[in-house]
Design goal:
By secondary structure, the chain is α/β, with parallel strands linked by helices. It has 2 domains: 3-160, Rossmann fold (3-Layer(aba) Sandwich); 166-291, Orthogonal Bundle (N-(1-d-carboxylethyl)-l-norvaline Dehydrogenase, domain 2). It has helices spanning 13-22, 34-41, 51-55, 68-81, 96-108, 121-127, 138-151, 163-191, 196-203, 211-214, 238-255, 260-277, 286-291; strands spanning 3-7, 26-30, 46-47, 60-63, 87-90, 112-115, 118-119, 130-135, 152-159. The structure holds nicotinamide-adenine-dinucleotide. The active site is at 168.
């Protein structure tokens, strides 16, 4: 049994913390939202009224927060309160520079740290089947792994500080670009009188195959479980795809990488969100291409 402080109990953090409770760990939770904290309490998480209350006696602190600025603010407060040797795990999706800064802050006071963003969405968080992409020292990874295994089914140590975030945004940049490519191909096929099924049967077994077509096909029919069959309810919301694409572009700028298609994908998703589609599944972007004359 490990004593865990879990900070940020929203759509992802709530079910992740609940799985730690189910596995027999003592979890105290803190969230700025009273309603979120109340919901977490129903899953056996002990609610804390203030951050420091959650940290008392904690051996491990997990954060699951919206953005880099939130993580840096919370980690600054956490590192003021916890003893040397405490392990801090951040599973939020944040920019690589903030992740590296957070690691450096932890190292300054002798704490262990891991960036460990996830993929698998809220369904994976509830089922305990997330994929964790971790960055940090071998010692931090070894200490965190048993807890990550409670919340996920695939745990990959990607390298040193920030490597987990780097892997996450590179993967999601591929996903954003490939989804746009698949959507364009289906719209072109429609104009050429090709049925969705025929294009799927060919492309999903030929050199066009990829996750965006084989598993998450953006038109209804060929893959019955894809969000296209459910009025594009997410799934993975377009606003989150846009967030990750923007993070990839920040990282490309600060590292000097050339990512022209990543930049184009970010612009297309920004337009899609501006048109009121941020809450829809990211594969619904196919409709924007149909409407473009
Ligand atoms: P969410 O908005 O549902 O939850 C974030 C929670 O953090 C909120 O409850 C908020 O009140 C709390 N919070 C914000 N600032 C705080 C602070 N200073 N102290 C305490 N609590 C604070 O978001 P989410 O969907 O759970 O996503 C969390 C992170 O996971 C994000 O970085 C997101 O990009 C990433 N992510 C989300 C998904 C998904 O499908 N939702 C998938 C993979 C990764």
């Amino acid at each position: 049994m490990t004593r865990i402080a879990f900070i940020g109990l929203g759509n992802m953090g709530g079910p992740m913390a609940a799985n730690l409770v189910k596995a027999g760990h003592a979890v105290t939770g803190f969230d700025l939202s009273h309603d979120v904290l109340k919901a977490a309490e129903a899953s056996g998480i002990k609610p804390a009224n203030v951050l420091t209350e959650a940290l008392a006696d904690a051996e491990v602190v997990v954060t699951m927060l919206p953005k880099g600025q939130h993580v840096l603010t919370v980690w600054t407060d956490v590192l003021r309160s916890v003893p040397k040797g405490t392990l801090l795990i951040d599973s939020s999706t944040i920019d690589v520079d903030s992740a590296r800064k957070a690691h450096a802050m932890a190292a300054d006071v002798g704490c262990l740290s891991l960036d460990a963003p996830v993929s698998g969405g809220t369904g994976g968080a509830a089922a305990g089947t997330l994929t964790f992409m971790a960055g940090g020292s071998a010692e931090s990874f070894a200490a965190a792994k048993p807890l990550l295994e409670v919340m996920g089914k695939k745990i990959v140590h990607c390298g040193d500080a920030g490597a987990g975030q780097a892997a996450k945004i590179c993967n999601n940049m591929i996903l954003g670009i490939s989804m746009i490519g698949v959507c364009e191909a289906f719209v072109l096929g429609e104009k050429l009188g090709l049925s969705h099924q025929a294009l799927f049967d060919v492309a999903s077994t030929s050199s066009g195959q990829c996750w965006s077509i084989n598993t998450y096909c953006p038109v209804p029919g060929p893959v019955p479980t894809s969000p296209a069959n459910n009025d594009y309810k997410p799934g993975f919301a377009a606003a989150l795809m846009l967030k990750d694409l923007r993070l990839s572009q920040e990282a490309a700028l600060s590292s000097g990488a050339s990512t022209p298609l990543g930049a184009e994908a970010a612009q297309l998703y920004a337009l899609f969100e501006k048109l009121g589609n941020g809450g829809r599944d990211f594969s619904a972007i196919i409709e924007m291409f149909r409407e473009t004359k």
